[in-house]
Target: ATP-dependent dethiobiotin synthetase BioD
Amino acid sequence: MSVLVITGTGTEVGKTAVTAGIAALARAEGRRVAVLKPAQTGLLPGEPGDVAEVARLAGDVTTRELARYPDPLAPATAARRAGMATVHPKDVAAEVTALDETHDLVLVEGAGGLLVRFDEDGSTLADVAWAVNAPVLIVAQAGLGTLNTTALTAEALQRRGLESIGVVVGSWPSHPDLASLTNLADLPEAAGAPLLGALPQGVTKLGPVDFLAVAKRSFSPWFGGEFDPDTFAAQFAVQ
Model:
């Protein structure tokens, strides 16, 4: 795998932290990593966005951002309100192809959930994944309600003939409630794919060295980490 698309089950689920964690582990293995954000919303020119956060945490990675819109809305809506051009899947695919030629791993981080619209034609991150023929990683919340949104995302991927490699909890709470604990067993069923990690809440406050150490513990060996879902779940007693 040289290209991976990272989607969330919604907004603020930890996609950027997960992207940074995968990038950091790949860099630790000596791989050349590029991170592409097709559309960044809710920020003005010059303000640090998601790719800047990934670079801060993961270190020496190539970053690209194709479009930026000031309103914190879906990219298509934000573009319309700002009177700016939208991003189309062919634009993203062209950038991914160019990055893939000079990097070992290209990570494409979506905006919001899988079916958030990028343009006036209704194109989504799913269309991007199809255009670049890349597998998709689902980033989910830990607690109540996540099984439904994860299952809906997985079903949308399946109906479009896209491969879901697994699910990662983007922000594991320091004091997990019953829903979060039981979801460790139920998330793989909802996703139709394995649980490949769980990043601790607040991990983006760390510096690069500590962040890498946490990423190592929090991601599956599939990404170069040490996370085992059974061992992780065994830390918590569910009555």
